[in-house]
## 1
Amino acid sequence: MGFFLETVIGGLMAGMLYSLIALGFVLIFKASGVFNFAQGAMVLFAALAMARFSEWFPELLKFDSKVLANVMAFVAAMALMVAVAWLIERLVLGKLVNQEGITLLMATLGITYFLDGFGQTVFGSDIYKIDVGLPKDPLFLLEGTFQGGVLVNKEDLYAAVIAAALVILLSLFFQYTSTGRALRAVADDHQAAQSIGIPLDRIWVIVWSVAGFVALVAGIIWGSKLGVQFSLALVALKALPVVILGGLTSVPGAIIGGLIIGVGEKLAEVYIGSKIGGGIEIWFGYVLVLFVLLVRPQGLFGEKIIDRV
Amino acid sequence: MLYRENGQFKTSYTSDLQVFPIAQDRIGIALLLAFAVFAVPLLADEYMFRAILIPFLILALAALGLNILVGYCGQISLGTGAFMAVGAYAAYNLFVRIDGMPMLLAILLGGAFSAAVGVLFGIPSLRIKGLYLAVATLAAQFFCDWAFLRIKWFTNDSASGSVSVSGLSLLGWKIDTPHEKYLLCLGIAIVFAMLAKNLVRSHIGREWMAIRDMDVAAAVIGIRPVYAKLTAFAVSSFIVGVAGALWGFVHLGAWEPAAFSIDRSFQLLFMIIIGGLGSIMGSFFGAAFIVVLPIFLNQALPALGALVGVTISTAAVAHTEFMIFGALIVFFLIVEPHGLARLWSIGKEKLRLWPFPH
Amino acid sequence: MQTTFPRLMLEHAAKRPTAPALREKVYGIWQTTTWAQLAVLVRDLACGLAQAGVRRADHVVVVGENRPRLYASMLAVQSLGAVPVPLYQDAAAAEYLFPARNAEVRMAIVEDQEQVDKMLEVRAGHPPLARIWYDNPRGLRNYAEPGLESLDALVEAGRAHGAAHPGFFDGQVQAARPDDVAAMFFTSGTTGNPKGVVHTHRTLLDRAGAGARFDKLTEREEVLAYLPPAWIGQNIFSYAQWLACGYVVNCPESASTVMIDLKEIGPTYYFAPPRVFEGLLTSVTIRMEDAGRIKRWLFGRAMEVARRVGPQIMDGKAVGLADRIAYGLGNLLVYGPLRNTLGLSRVRVAYTAGEAIGPDLFTFYRSIGVNLKQLYGSTETAVFVCLQPDHEVRADTVGVPIEGVEIRLADSGEILVRSAGLLKEYYKNPEATAEVKDAEGWYHTGDAGFIDAGGHLKIIDRAKDVGRLLGGPNDGAMFAPKYVENKLKFFPFIKEAVAFGDRREKVCAFVNIDFEAVGNWAERRNLPYAGYVDLAGKPEVLELVRECVEKVNADLAADAKLAGSQVSRFLVLHKELDADDGELTRTRKVRRGYIGDKYQALLDAMYGGRTEQYIETAVRFEDGRTGKVSATLKIVDAKVLPALRQAA
Amino acid sequence: MSADTAVGPTAAAAADPAAVPGARRRRQGEVVLEVSNISLRFGGVKALTDISFDVREHEVRAIIGPNGAGKSSMLNCINGVYTPQEGRITFRGRTFDHMNSREVAEMGVARTFQNLALFKGMSVLDNIMSGRNLKMRTNILQQAFRNPWWSGAEREESEHREVVERIIDFLEIQAYRKTPVGRLPYGLQKRVDLGRALAMEPQVLLLDEPMAGMNVEEKQDMSRFILDVNDEYGTTIVLIEHDMGVVMDISDRVVVLDYGRKIGDGTPDEVRANPDVISAYLGTSH
């Protein structure tokens, strides 16, 4: 039982992080109808930036306050992500308005490759550390209930909390800020939004910046967990089924989807994987989603699509 | 400029329906083939065969298959690598488990298995569209990666998890020199290119394109989306599977699942984007481009660096390659969504109208 | 030629049954009718017509585009010894009425609904028109008019009738004599009713054969039939010579696809009036303007070379090696492709006729390697009178009298022709016939001209317009206004010209500038102008026109007979001559007399030696409003050269 | 006269609406298609409410109404693009409560679309050829191995090509045969759309605003084509238009919709006289 709970909790933690990345997807899809395959690349890029900046600033400016270094690195990285967002809007999306989803998807594939290449050219391609002081030591809960209690990694806990906070923050942002409402308007109908004078290009820059911010946070958390390396980009691939499961356009969907898949794949790994050679996390989420889609083509929380003729 | 079309009038539909209705084109293609079959073997050295020609032909074949699905039927797929893998491993198992199994048959059956799997993962495409489908195909990718890595049966319980084949022969003709391998691949590529061309210019091809361009209208004129999409998946994965088998058997000889990873899927997707969506010819252009570019960069960049006195590491080259591919994809999607093939046909039109611009 | 059209057709069918006789682009492909199939079709049609009551010497109207079944119908009519009367398919119903009555037409074979509607109108005014057959049933399903049937029905009926009366058809064909009437062509005279020009099998075939031998035509020629079949030119090239030589006639898919079809077929024997060639050239220039700089440069250079040596090479004259190479290169890069895109790659012989063709236009085609030649002839002469032999081609002559033609010049300068190809008569119009055909069988062409030193015929004008100068240095010299005007109009800057001089001591001319051409010219020189009147008055423009005039004068001086017609004074009119103001005919021919009276003041000024003259004229605008334009026109003197050779 | 000035059959055969419908009405048969009590909702929005009408063989039946009256939705129900929540559709005696596009097509119902739904990536020829797909029998293998010498697929292609060519000829678009549809002017694209529908050799032809956005000549041509189709092939025609003028000329009976309800049904004259129709059309009538 304790083991089960442990697994579930572990799943939830991982799920939270998936949601975090999924959130990036959803934001961008809602606002610009782009299925941003590059989200993973952005995570890697942001993490790389964060990691290297936090090394470079102390060297350059000759100080050794970790906090300061991290803060500066964070700000710089964020600025970089905004720049990236701006460039993507200028050079890519701006030129592909009103194109089909497929085309845009492929474009983001291009962006992915570019960012991966660019990031590693600029920041190097070794494994780097991010240390924002997340505690690494484990933590035992409910020791009373079962003997041995339930082991939870503190780092995960913090991460989950941060992720949750971010998710809530963004939902609020969408609900209550004017920009947020503008974003929703754009998502619902580009032409209409434009006609009531919402500047699409600026909105897109904002959205991509927000996505960049999310990517940065995700990057920091995963980075400090696994170390910053190319494989980070692949974490995004884990998040894809989450988005689809939740429904491309739904923020809560992204969160719940994340949790479902996080828990689901852990349980599956533990209870099924062990019997069939293990490592089934890689595809579990996808196959799960596949079956869900057969029932609900628009995902759990997505809107139904009607063809007008 | 080279065209002299006066007097080339068609007195029957058959002659009007030819793949190359213009005499000059027929001559051109004949010369090209003759060159590929007779001249290239004389000119190319071992490295050429191994590093460029054979990979080019096989990947072109795979791209061709993918193009049928994405370019003609408009169903995005990010799982091509998986279907190549299925083809390769199926062929492998047939080849090693059934003794006396002819190589070619094994390869074709590999394609057949791949087709079956393709249809299986294509089924979602009946309910779901575009982006959602992309994810479904990714499912295929990851599942197959896993299956061929973890399920020992597929790899014939080989300890290392890598498999290998040897003693290739075709109807008694032993195929071991690169030259022979090249000819084998060339032959298969040509045959499949022709078959594919026939399909896309027949009514099945029109059904695919109809679904791609305007699925509601297609349904209204009586095209069954189910049939159209699944046939596209089947044909596509069949060709991709054959390519996969060739990649394993002929190009690699010994391989691991990594040979068919998601990167392979993306690489093939890039080939058809750059080469030209919805164009047989384009698949070959794209493959040539993407096979040659890295090799070119590997030569050029360090040399360039040397000029300005910078030493450029192989890693750097690899990253530049990434950047260039990424940039190119975006560039083509924006500037010429129909890729090199379109540029080619525009050039051809210009030659036909020469000296007039239009 | 001891034969008739139907017999020729049957001979081809017997000799080369499977060879293509006609091709028509239908449903996207060139559907072929072999000679054998044609023979069968003609037989059925003929039997059908006979059953429907067609008798020898009846007239049957045939109206429509070039369609194989209409060709077959003409053959069928001829096989019965009856006379096909082709009429212009774009004419209005009213214009059919006179021919129908004049030829007592009882039956008509037409192309489609459009023509049927017109024929039904004709019938209203000419009840005897009892039977009408149509080739294309589209839109005619609900027509219930009596005597209206499809050609298919006719063929059916004919087949039955033919089966019932074996040997009937062949009997009819054998009964036909070469001197029977073969066809009647209505020429719209400038005044009065059109005249029916009657030709026999002999007359048409004699000329067709002569023309064919002249250019060594074979049965392998390909011809595209796109001009109205009612026009004798079209009839000779794609009917008479078709049967005489047995080559292939191709019918385009539709009016909108002629250019595409031309390119596909690539005819080897091509005929078109200058208008068509001009249209082609214009399209070339326009399309080249959108080309990139390099291409334009290449094109320009290539055309220079072509202009310089092209015609000589065409004429088989010796040219320097360097030039040969340059031309060869040009041929590879420009002329060849150009011919291809125009559909003229395979042309062996191309003819133009009907009106004078500008030298630039003419030489353009020859310089890019199209063997374009001129011929002289008319409906009455069954076209072939004079043709230009290869290697002896010039822009301002129409070639040498060919086999079987005698030419004489009347003192008036009028050209008289005698050949076996002359019309039999004008139908039911003996006096008109007598006017043009004298006792010794000379046909009076009504054209004035002369044979030049090289033995080539040179047309200068309609005989009735040729005048004489009176007094002055060249008293009594021949004055050919049209000839002068044409020479002037060949300059792109000059749109219209009117030359005066008959019974005057010297020649003076009114000139209309081409607003567009001169406009561009002015802009290139960034010469500002307010509008037509302003531009026409600019001294620079007058200078420009003077150069043209003097070039013409130099040209005329070279020719003893015409030296007197040089233009000594001219002015540039302040308004464009316009049919709405009665200055031009609807076919844009200048009405010299009317203009002379209207602008009397200007004429007087010119001959009165004044240097300028104020004029005010009423004009009618498109929208029917009328207004006045006024200007003070400068009168310019042009250099006149002495005649080079003394008159022989 | 030169090549470019010849007059094709186009110019003359201007439709004479006055005469032709008379001819047609004589050929009018019994009811082929009957729509009864159709109601359609999107979520809360009511697109159609309790619509009933019938279509007789060989007639030209118009459905008119202001924009947003639910005309297109009606067509979409008939050929199975939408599934109405209530109501039945009876076609040649068979009754359906929802149609499936394929079945509808097989039963011989074709349609054109309001805002062109052509296959952008294909030539005019291929677009119209695609309309033949139901009539094509050869299987994938035969097609893959097609060749000029011994091939059912090749023969099939040629046969259907000829049918299609007749349609191209009928619609007078010979000059554009191999042009990609995208490059054609709007009016011609409409013709291709019609051609694609005709290629199905339909018994009933649904036309969704065939003349929308056309200039006067184009409208004339189109009306002529519609009438010709109706005469030559006896095809029953159901057409939607918001432009009353044209419709009244060419149709035998007219249904009028407004806000998803039927407000009138009858011959053009009856409908013209109908007060509801007049009020519905105030301002919008052309």
## 2
Amino acid sequence: MSNSEQTSEHLHPHAHAKHHHGSAALYVRTLVALLILTAITVGASYIDFGAGNVVIALFIATIKATIVALFFMHLRWDKPVNAVIACAGFLFLGIFLMFDFIDFGSRDGLRPVNWDGKLPIETVAPATSGAAPAAEKK
Amino acid sequence: MENAIKSQTRIADRPRPKINYLNATHGIWSWMSTVDHKRIGVMYLVGVLGAFFVGGMFALLVRLTLLTHDHMLFGRLLLTADAYNRVFTLHGVIMVFLFIIPSVPAALGNFVLPLMLGAKDVAFPRLNLASFYLWCTGAILAVVGMIFGAIDTGWTFYTPYSTTTNGTVTLMTMAVFILGFSSIFTGINFVATVHKLRAPGMGWFDMPLFVWGIYSTAIIQVLATPVLGITVVLLMLERVFSIGIFDPKLGGDPVLFQHFFWFYSHPAVYIMILPGMAIISELIPTFSRKTMFGYRAVAYSSVSLALLSFIVWGHHMFVAGQSQLATVIFSALTFLVAIPSGVKMFNWLGTMYKGNISLETPMLYAISFLLLFAIGGLTGIFLGTLSVDVHLTDTYFVVAHFHYVMMGGTVIAFIGGIHYWWPKMTGRMYSEKWGRIACTLIFIGFNMTFLTQFILGSRGMPRRYYNYLEQYQPLHAFSTVGSWVIGLGMFMTAAYLLASLRKPMDAPDNPWGGTTLEWTTSSPPIEHNFEEQPVLTKAPYDYRPETVAH
Amino acid sequence: MEQQFDTSKIGMWLFLATEVLLFGGLFVGFGLMQARYPQEFIEAHEHLQRPLGALNTVVLLISSFTMVMGVLSAQRGDKKKVVMFLVLTILCACIFLGVKYFEYSHKFEEGLLPPRWYHAQSTDTVRDAAGNVSHGYGTFFAFYFMMTGLHGIHILVGIFLLSWIAVRAHRGEFSKAYYTPVDLVGLYWHLVDLIWIYLFPLFYLIK
Amino acid sequence: MEWLRAWMLPPQGSDFAAEVDTVYMWLFWLSVVLFLGIAYAAIYFSWRYRYKPGRVTPHQTHNTMLEIVWSAGPLLLCVGIFFWGLNGWMKYSVAPGESMEIQITAKKWLWSFEYPDGTRTANEIHVKLNKPVRFVMTSEDVLHDFFVPDMRVKADIVPGRYTEVWFTPTVLGVHHVTCAEYCGKGHSDMQAKLVVDNEADFAKFMETGGTEWEDYKTKPAEWGKLQYERKGCSTCHSIDGSLTKGGGPSWKGIWGKMETLNNGQQVLVDEPYVRESMMVPAAKIVKGYEPIMPTFQGLLRETEIQGLEAFIKSLGNDPNGGPPAPTVLALPPPKPKDQAQAQ
């Protein structure tokens, strides 16, 4: 495998030519697609889909990101290893996000108990330290 | 036993080349500006051993303070509570961030990995040097932080203690941030090197297992360390600007910090142990003169440990206030780690079975590793078991457990690796006799120090305690005496290794009969590693007479 | 040459993966804090100027386009066009930062700041009995400043790198056979764009 | 093997302890067996196959069956251990409904405990034998951890949140409470005493109102001020002359005043009147106020009533609520600490 990688130059004297996949026309089309998607997502933000808001916005963002990665970043034509690395970055971010949401999502309550929408923090835990930030005293 | 070097498989020595990587150029500047992976590896080795010395001194001081119940020695108070907190924090920070994480990959890995692959250098030599200088910068910042007040947060920097305490927390976290990027650069370098610079004929499953281990480590370094970076940045911002992410007084969540911290720091445990296992996977076949049993299983177990390490971090937080659902999931996933660890252990033993085993110093370290890592791994099962963990977590049991893995595992393997590659790095043999004595001392001292701490922990002695109940006094004293034995062994090791440098070069190219590519070049290697591009014709660890003769 | 180009690319992609996780940490924090303070985050995001955010999105997308055209010109060895497209990219980056400057100064004037300094309370509804506003509003802006700030730093670094590449291109250091730096900086620049593609809806659009 | 358990683990003080210890000891023996197996193999092989020049080693590359066996074997074992641990932990996670609830507030470096009736103690808790007790905990500054080795329970105490832990004490006497999450200089000194009482001793302890009263015996007005804040008096009564949302009369300067009631009678604000107003608030309502105050009969102890009176008295003399007026209290001196020792 590495053997073929290392010697590819000798096997394909015009190997560098294979990077010439894009064309100005294709990039213009890509840009137009991205701008249209931007318009759609901005437009959609004025309509209330309830819980769907986040899903729609992130779904469109993911389509846009994929387009950028595939065409502007050449992943469509690139060696698969680069795409694997890119996906790994997002995959492990996904793991990080997922487990944190498992924890947060299954806790009893998320709001700090000393600020439950009724009591300022000072009432419950009085005079803890002199370094209490100014924000509390507003 | 004095017939130290059994050389039936040693290849015939060529005349030693006059010019090698050590004397190719001269002067300090030629070292400081070098992009040679071997020199960078050596500089890293010197650096991390310096950090190991400082961290070790702090460790001895911690143990000495706990020797007596009133912390008095010869009528003088050793450390106040404040000083004690600073000392154990510095011990942790230095050992974790400055020593263990860069130890095997950046020092030995840098030196050996390109040689094993038959490459001239790593993929990005200048990035490699940059990584070293980042390490230096981090080290300097840490030293400056130590001088201007140090920190007393524990190496885990838990909020809100770390955001409210005095001391140079901001400076220290800055150092950690920079050290993180040093580690990332090393990781990027190694992944690219393994992908692109393998010798002709070397497929993925022809790579030495050390390379597999370092490659798995590099994956973790690349994917986990950035989260450490952002975590310490958030901590610094919280301290300086009170942004309210972790500080409950401003609506933040302290447990969130622990998620961020352990998302890096659990994989970091595998940044530490995987390279240790990788070294053992070299030592055992070499000194058993037998092919690696279950090569693919060991290679896959390295990668799967790397991946598993990302999904078990919550086991540090079973009692920290994470939800019960998360706790159960993390506990279940944690047990999965036992399988690849076990696979490695059994395959190492399988390799020794029917081998032709000689017990030179590196092999003694390898066998010490097997025993100590077995204890470290088995006590991990206690801590993964939910009901038992509630009692044991945050006690000395945990301290003992991770020292068995980090020190009994990684450090023992690291020292074994230094002995194994010392002839290659320096061109000199060390005293085999003193090597065996020191190894025995370290093994005995280690068990004295930390076996007792399991008992202290299960009896209910919490960690990071300055004052302790009088009932724990005898065990603490025993543990402290053990730490002196380790110290003695370590100083002995330093002494005979340094002494060997005063001799003329006497090491053969392949003193141990190793089968990987680094043994085919001269000791020490020439500047560009190999006279001519090596081509791999047989798999590593092939000890069949017909192929050895080849 | 091919070998080195591929190696550099792997290295760059690995670096980009670390960038994804670096920003990712902040995304995770933002997500969790939004789960904690849903009402506050919805109200707080109304303070952001959606048209300016949309404008910046368009500017960055165009800059990505000019960047990729620069890479294409480099592949074809068209030195003049490389320089032109790089300069255009830098121009877009400056516009982006200019708009950000206006947005930031607006936030500072209104007191839309992290919890410790947050003092724009007029329309905030989540309060305690004494009328103190929830910390959640400030938390939103803490993340707003951290994430757009880190992104802004990346833009600044990008401007620096683009200028460096433009100068080298002008000197004629690149050719059909060797244009690796242009390609790598291009990848970096697209990632900066890609991150903004997520930042924009998260901060400006999500109700 | 009981001696071994007793050597490695603390005394068993709760019903968790037996369960945890069983798992612990089982894991211990499992580890011993596995360790000896590994050590035996490593050392035996090193001796049995020690180096002999010229010996040719077999070329054993792998054995798929073996790999499967030594992957699946540990996996099954681990699944079993996981469920065993989970089983014990589930009990630990859910407190029974009838538990007595004690609130813990931890701060650097002090434990405060509060009982359902408002009794407070510092660094000492009394609980009833064989009755489940549930602790609801929060911190005022940094992370702490409530660890009772004898009970085999431990839980972090997180500022801004409540965390819980429970157990049923099964052994009379004093047990050790210790902080297990690093909290700074005094971390290792952050200790408390957990006293398991029988019914009678516990009742005696509760009557006296905990240990806090001891500290305030000489400063009744300050004790009263604490009760003013804790018992909810402050919701309706200000101490600076202003009118609160609750709408009760301010306590500033009220002691010794002649008030006109809504039936036209006059009344002197003195000790009997104040006491009556707490116990039967509707009996005498001052003109201009609504009869909205709830009774505090049964909610206030004698010590607390007297403390409140001393506090009101101190406000009468000094508009700024300065040093309390000298008051002589004739109280039966409570001695909770002695009783604790009597255990």
